[in-house]
Amino acid sequence: MTEARDLLQRLAHAYGIQTSYRGHDGHEHRVSDHTLTTVLAALGCSVEPDGTAGLEAALARRRLAPWLRVLPHTTVSHAGSGSSVQVHVPHGSAVTIEVLLETGETRPLEQLEDFTEPQDIDGELIGQATFRLPRDLPVGWHRLSALLEDGNEVEATLVVTPERLTTADPYRHQRGWGLSVQLYSARSSASWGLGDFGDLAALAVQTAAHGGDYVLSNPLHATAPEPPVISSPYSPSTRRFTNPMYLRIEDLAEYAALDPRARREVDGLAAARQADNATAGSLDRNATTAAKLTALRRLHQVTPAPERARAYRDYREQEGQGLEDFALWCALRSAFDPTDPVWQDPEFTPGGRLAERYRRELAEDVDFHRWMQWLCDTQLATAQQAAREAGMRLGLMQDLAVGADRNNADAWMLQDQLVPSMSVGAPPDMYNQRGQDWSQSPWHPERLAETGYRAYRDMLRSVLRHAGGIRVDHILGLFRLWWIPVGQSPTEGAYVTYDHEAMIGILALEAERAGAVVVGEDLGTFEPWVQDYLARRGLLGTSILWFEQEDGRPRPPQDYRVQCLSSVNTHDLPPTAGYLAGTHLDLRERLDLVAGDPDTERDRAGAERRAFLQAVVEAGFLSADTAATLTSATPADPADPAVVADIVVALHRYLAQAPSLLHGIALVDAVGERRIQNQPGTQQHEYPNWEIPLADAAGRAVLIDNLDAVPGFARLLDAVHHELNSGAASDRQPDHGMPTP
């Protein structure tokens, strides 16, 4: 390795950029020098990869950077750890440090005997002093204050986080299970063509009737304020606020207060959209969004009752400037095309002269979008209350997307904390062999710390407010994220690390305060210690049946992790019936997403399915004849849906032997659906991602009003509930379709 390359790699490591990674193929892959210099530039360090002197100077600046600050921007500590903080002042100067607790109390810090050689910074000697944090500091958001010898005072953020999140502990005594659903796809006769918060509450009550503890929905984050909207719930405009498309219009107090003429108009909009509820074709988000926005504008004109006006004011005060800026962005986005040059004007940013002018001129529209967020908050609260009153221990589990779309609300509101020249994604893996680009700007690690992680904290608080749990999509991104220079291939990226003690610690703190379980989706390419760390901090991981293999054979469920949510599939895989039929292989081949030979991939997948079915047969949950019926099926002569349903139940009973604290059932599996909700690596013109409504094995639309009448729904839920509550049985009998006791 040349001297310049060595210096470049050292500089990259100093900025938290990993210069290589171990891929799914088990091999080490080196990141190109071009990618390293591009990512460094995005982090504020522009260098020439072959300029030795410049690289050495950049390394020196990086090493001295902490010495330029009296206090670290943010200090994150575990409760009871008694950790320390380094303070930098002119050499020989006195400094006093104290903690300002969020309760208003003050605690002095003790200076330790820990001499460190002072550093010459631009001709001035700067010394370092170390102060111990008391072990008995309470968890919470505090401030560090440094009183300098010259009388100046410097403050910084101190976050004391729980050593361990305790919210999942009750499930060690009695494991829990729940249903996962793509809410927009799960409609009722009252839906406006897409599932809504009323449907979510109804689904929770139905699941609770079978003993379920939670309903996990897709991310409910807000998207564009008016059509056209992005279909993917994992590419929102912001993660902090909610999509009004999910509002149940008829449940709003303002609907009841409409005059007869306005009521007829709203009811007409509803009837037009409800006509689509019985169809199994692609969902029409734009039509539903347009209809609901029209109805909501009518409702916004209703004078609220005094108690609702007070509740709205309280909500505004609680959400603060973040809500105000999001509502302003919505109004601006409705008034200006996304390609309008005005978006590039520095005065068009939050707090800018031009933006503030429009805040006044568009005040009514700003209030409309602000008001809709309050309505979302109230209906989510109602749904969570219904779930808990129905007997669920957890209730709603919210899904947190990895990030927000690069050109939307978060990019505008938080542009000083995001990196617009980079896009988040993933390197190639077995299921996405060309890698993935999710078109989302990553957090800037240092800007997060400089701002005390406030935006991250506020987002978590909003998502957790009415949830008993949170699933963090790609939780590995709180440790490191795959950054792709915008315009480059996903294969030309690099991993950038984050302060995981801060990211995980703050997540644990906010979840503990909300009483919520945290489930991290820890699948994909990751470093081995990550899962152990998550378990030690009290967070659950994720196990998917098809991924649990060892030396090419299924891992026995008894060997799965305890601190985990286990399920047969995930939203990025086809429903189990489709997986058994190989529908994903047909689709990937048709879309040219298979990097190798398609026949080889089919042979591999076929062997995998046979191995899992054999394991289920050997465990006593499936007869050999039933398994053979499936393995002998062909596209021309597919297996009978009743046989497939038997196998789906058997797979879930088999998985229920895992000691995992939580188990999951996908609603699509409970009704026999075969179609894939999302095919990673594709665009809408290639496949209708996130636009597939819930349907049964025959392709007929399924409404949640009638779920208990759907063959297999109650059977699958009751089977899992029985297995989780019956303990280990010595003699397992195959389920041939009879009701589970």
TrEMBL record:
Domain MalQ N-terminal beta-sandwich residues, every copy: 71-162
Keywords, comma-separated and alphabetical: Carbohydrate metabolism, Glycosyltransferase, Transferase
EC number assigned by the record: 2.4.1.25
Cross-referenced InterPro entries: GH, Glyco_hydro_77, MalQ_N
Taxonomic superkingdom: Bacteria
KW DNA damage (keyword) present: no
Enzyme class: transferase
Signal peptide: none
Keyword Transferase recorded: yes
Catalytic activity: Transfers a segment of a (1->4)-alpha-D-glucan to a new position in an acceptor, which may be glucose or a (1->4)-alpha-D-glucan
Pfam (any one): MalQ_N
Similarity section: Belongs to the disproportionating enzyme family.
This protein's name: 4-alpha-glucanotransferase
Biological source species: Citricoccus zhacaiensis
Organism classification: Bacteria, Bacillati, Actinomycetota, Actinomycetes, Micrococcales
